[in-house]
Fold these 2 entries.
Entry 1:
Amino acid sequence: MPIRRIVPFSLGAALLCWATPALAEDVLDTGDTAWILTSTALVLFMTIPGLALFYCGLVRTKNVLSVMMQCFALTALMTILWLAYGYSLAFGTGGMEAGTTNLHSFIGTFEKAFLRGVGPDTVSGTIPEVLFFAFQMTFAIITPALIVGAFAERMRFAAMLAFMVGWFTFVYLPICHMTWGGDGGFFWDMGVFDFAGGIVVHITAGIAALVLALQLGVRRGWPTSPMPPHNLTLTVIGTGMLWVGWYGFNAGSALGAGGSAAMALVVTQISAATAALTWMTIEWLAAGRPSVLGVVTGSIAGLAAITPASGFVGPVGALCIGLASGCACYWASVVLKFRLGYDDSLDVFGVHGVGGFVGTVLAGVFASQIFGGLQGDLAIGKQVGVQLVAAVTTVAYTALVTYGLARAVDVLIGLRVDDLGEEQGLDLFEHGESGYNL
């Protein structure tokens, strides 16, 4: 079976070898295994404590523990769901065939449920398959956790858990399978570039965030009453953890310790730095002073945007993607949100949704060797078209399913806490605890 394109050793190339063993003999490599063990720890570290600290510093004092609780509970919940059926439905390949569209082009099988047939000696590419399971599990954990920032300070904990079970099952798993599931996957067969999750992680989470923000409505008093972050120090610490952890996110997606991982790490750093400086500069010019909140948010925008492109672009591409995402995400978070009047509490759509979309589309441009990319003589127009189709399809599918799930949960449980609960704060109202002596 021919390889559809020449790529550096990446998540896509490794999955191709994994899904079609005739192409290459799976041989365990201890260096690759050591790097992916490290990367798995780094990506989990992004959620707990990185994302938890980033988010809890941005909310008001009375909601700090609720945000941390949501991040921790989702880490536990997604782990069990990933074991039970998530990994199998995302990466089960039974019935898949290159160039043929059937049910398994959109979702996998239950062949690996509860890791059936997977043991310590089962090899996937050059790493143990159980390690591939664990690495991908950390992506399944952080994606729903990102959405927490959109409904912070007003969604019921029970409703959040119920919604996330459905969202993981009916949004994350199909998109993951279509993009990364190997030959026969719908987006895979289109030739989509998504090295580490621009489509799978950031677009899905960003669009879900927007839909939930619209469904829940604005927080009491927003936008007329000031709702400043209660502790930006925690947010800066969380940002640093996310930035460092992103090396595992992007460079780890090479699934090996080699040149592809090294380049992914370098372009990740360049994009984050460029977007941070871009956001800071725009804010400085617009408001007369640069803010800590602005520079850290800009860095996250650059990290989100480079994610899909990190295995395909070079330094020049990373610089351009960082600049574009810094501008686009600033506009979406600071201008568009207030013009349209939706309360995305911590700018998940503006940063992750917009950043992921921008990076996904621009991967089709800057992967070309013309811009120092790694994909040789790429037909840029055709590839950009492929990227756009996949991104827009993901937006539409995610929005539709998220809306249906949110409506169902609202009818069955109720999405939002009442006015008393919101006024009191979710820490006390939902959990009977407080992170501060009030």
Entry 2:
Amino acid sequence: MIRHIGLFILKPGTTAEQVAPWVEAIKAMVVPGLLNHTWGLDLGLREGNASMAAVFDFADEDAYRAWDTDDEHNRIRRELMQPILVRAERCQYRLD
């Protein structure tokens, strides 16, 4: 199993309402091999944290790569994510 983690720094003043269309669009995708995913805005418990995190578990590397290169996923990134994003950091690792 492959775990993909995204940490996102959002533009100052970005609201949960502005993030919601991005998250809902990703949740609506039909992704073969996607086993689980969670999202959350930072609670502000520590200075310097990312604004938001997402964790996705995929059955294998092929499932992750198919999702990462999916046309709809890339449209969502371009149209819904990029306008409110300063920076994204990503990491994938094996859970097996």
